[in-house]
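Q: I have 425 residues here and want to know how they pack in 3D. Can you give me a structure?
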Amino acid sequence: MISSLRILTSVTVLLCATFLRLVVADNPINPGFPYGSEKVRGVNLGGWLVLEPWITPSIFDNTGNPNIVDEYTFGQMQDHGTALAVLQNHWNTWITESDFEAIAAAGLNHVRLPIGFWAFDVSGGEPYIQGQLPYLQNAITWAGNHGLKLIIDLHGAPGSQNGFDNSGERLSFPTWQENESNVQRTDAIIMTIANMVKDNTNVVPIIAPLNEPAGYDGSQMLDVVTQYWYDSYGNIRFPFGTSQESNTVVLLHDAFQPLSFWSGFQTPPQWQGVAMDTHIYQMFSQELVSQTDAQHIQTACNYQNSLAFDLWLIVGEWTPAQTDCAKYLNGRGIGARYDGSFSGSTFVGSCTGLTGSASTFSSAFKTFLRQYWEAQVIAYERGGSGWIQWTWKAENADEWTYQAGLANGWIPQDPTDFMFPDICG
């Protein structure tokens, strides 16, 4: 019976997707930003409405419990009132309207805001603490006040789509794709978000229906993700099944596949208002973290020739950091590849002076950060439709943050003001 229902559901969704393609054919949307003709320049608000141990290590260290490694265990392994009080204080103080004002003053035009499914739904009995939605509404208001475009990014789905702590639940293997109800719950949340912003696309022009699904786990994940992308198109462009399409752009993640995997997927004129998100980091493998500074810059520059795509392409996460030295970056209690403290890694160098407070950074390292930042910005603008740096702020990892880069000179006050304009040739 379950198999028959699944087949029937899939057929129904495919028929709906075909109908939607016919409805929107040759009918371009009018999003709140001229994607494709003007470059996206933005920053992520990481660690605010979805906790990440490396962004706010004090929140985790202060629990006194080393088994609290993500937002799931944060709610599960301590008193509800205690957890709620810490989170409410964090939500009230980590990002405020002054941050939006500063982001706009820095010449940026987009903010990407990660939020977890649990802000909307804990009907599966998950131990997450709720209360994020008023802050999502604040973010929409603040973005509008300061002329910024807000991307709402569903960063965590029921069961976890990747097993990363930033999905809410750190797991050895994701389980979102294994349970049809997980996907249905996620669909419902995307419909809720789409309906919430469908008349406010001048401020919220994009919804990203799922961050970083683990496509590298093979067809058992990719098949579900591909179908979910079809579902998401209808849920975002036609919220609650209305025949009148919205102007909201659908931002799909590449699921860690080469762009060629998605070539021809949801392209105009049959599909309208679809963009592709790719994330580029150069420290999450032994090979990448072992590169010299010059090699990191050259690797970045090479992207100017490899990001051509048949959809608007945004590099939705990247960083001027070149190591994985930041405390808890690979997870609470897990070391770094760079200094060999990560299990199975090989020592490259000492992390001293490469992470933490910018006051400990040498002038030579700051110069490298400026060169590497500029190389990436140049490459992502030449090759794609723009970029969104990860992340705006962190407690003790200045090499990652836009805020610290502005304050310490490796990020210019105007993102088009280059000191090394010829770094990529």
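Q: Anything worth noting?
A: The chain has twelve helices and eight strands. The beta strands are 40-44, 110-116, 149-156, 206-208, 249-253, 274-279, 312-317, 386-389.
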